[in-house]
Design goal:
5 strands, 314 residues, two-stranded antiparallel sheet
Length: 314
């Protein structure tokens, strides 16, 4: 049976038959994708480093949770893996490998890596909750089909990260309650998602936790601003529309940019307090250039998809 569905804003084609589920095609439009490199300012060797972690995370997702779980691959969790590995003592192991998408030649891939493993578990859990939320809010067909392969994956993730799972659930329930109550304060609603991201980054370092919090706040507010026109047309909840409803479009944009600029400054402060042992050029690019470039691109764009991550596939 051939099925086409939308999973996490990704158009996916799959086949279901007696032998299982096979992924045919994924159009890369990640769940968020705002935490990405700015490629024009990155040296080739540093971009290859980023891509090695990206491909490594893809392989780790497939190895730990099955091939369909690769649909949860995002740049945001690639950043998490890069950052966590940069804080560790052990040098990453890189091997040359092929994948189903890039059959032509082998590529460098980071493998057998604790940071990638942790990022894969967090990615699968967040994807599951995202699908659950989409199903509850919009009765999305893609979310309905997408949840099936993730049930087993999340069951495995809960065995190793039960506390994280319960924290995710609590933060997202609080976020859902705030949205259903029509909370008009952007900061109040963003706090719940920011707290969830802080939980993901919580590995015992206060600066890392604060960095995660600010990354989460940045993602939520920028995503809300990015979605505002579509939400307005479909009469859906959006805190940007509620808080800035009496402002002009230009005034709204300036208010959002001011808020996000403060968040980016705090993100950089937390990042600078960390002891980065490797991947510094890539991480610097993301923290100081990539995040701001995403903000400026979305705030300047008139088309929602125009503001998303760079279109060229890794």
């Amino acid at each position: 049976m051939f099925i086409k569905f939308v999973l996490q804003r990704e158009e996916a084609y799959i086949i279901l038959n007696k032998n299982g589920i096979f992924l045919l095609k994924v159009c890369e439009k990640p769940l968020f994708g705002y935490v990405n490199v700015y490629r024009d300012e990155l040296k080739i060797k540093d971009y290859n480093c980023f891509r090695a972690y990206y491909c490594g995370l893809c392989r780790e997702l497939g190895a730990q949770f099955g091939q369909v779980s690769r649909l949860s691959l995002t740049y945001d969790f690639t950043f998490l893996a890069l950052l966590l590995d940069a804080l560790g003592l052990q040098e990453p192991r890189v091997e040359q490998a092929r994948c189903a998408k890039h059959l032509g030649r082998k590529r460098p891939v980071v493998c057998e890596n604790k940071a990638l493993s942790y990022s894969a578990y967090m990615s699968v859990m967040l994807t599951y909750f995202k699908l659950r939320d989409d199903l509850a809010d919009d009765r999305a067909v893609g979310a309905f089909f997408g949840m099936f392969p993730y049930r087993m994956a999340v069951r495995k993730a809960k065995k190793y990260y039960g506390e994280k799972y319960r924290a995710f659930d609590a933060h997202l329930n609080a976020l859902t309650a705030a949205e259903k109550a029509g909370e008009s304060c952007v900061d109040a609603v963003a706090h719940h998602f920011a707290s969830l991201m802080a939980e993901i980054f919580d590995l015992g370092d206060d600066n890392l936790i604060r960095l995660g919090y600010n990354i989460g706040r940045f993602i939520y507010i920028l995503d809300a601003y990015d979605d505002r026109e579509e939400d307005r047309k479909k009469n859906r909840y959006n805190p940007i529309l509620l808080q800035y409803n009496e402002m002009s479009e230009e005034e709204c944009r300036e208010a959002v940019e001011r808020s996000l600029s403060i968040t980016l400054a705090e993100t950089a402060r937390c990042y600078e307090a960390l002891h980065i042992r490797r991947n510094k050029a890539v991480l610097d690019n993301i923290i100081y250039i990539g995040l701001r470039a995403q903000m400026e691109k979305i705030c300047a764009s008139t088309s929602k998809q125009e503001g998303k991550t760079q279109d060229e596939s890794i």
